[in-house]
Amino acid sequence: MAGLNGGIFNTELPHTKIGVTYAGERLNHINGTPRENFVPPVLVNLLDTRLSRFNDPILEVGYEKLNKIINAHTNDSLHRSAGQRASQTGL
Description:
Layout: E1 8-12, E2 19-23, H1 57-89
Antiparallel strand pairs: 1-2
């Protein structure tokens, strides 16, 4: 699937025997958006010079985003647990 723009097919021209590759299908996101118009929820600016120190800036940005989500969830859980303990002890 060259360029991820759709399914790729091969054929041979009958008279010249020249091989030809062509796109025959479009790819869409599950919500129906054409693949070439899809914008992910987390964008990574590969031109950002701060990311140049990483071998895989996309992985690093994803890892950072995931850590923020996990930490926010952990903090929410800790606050809820502390609140439940306080209500049980009458604080």
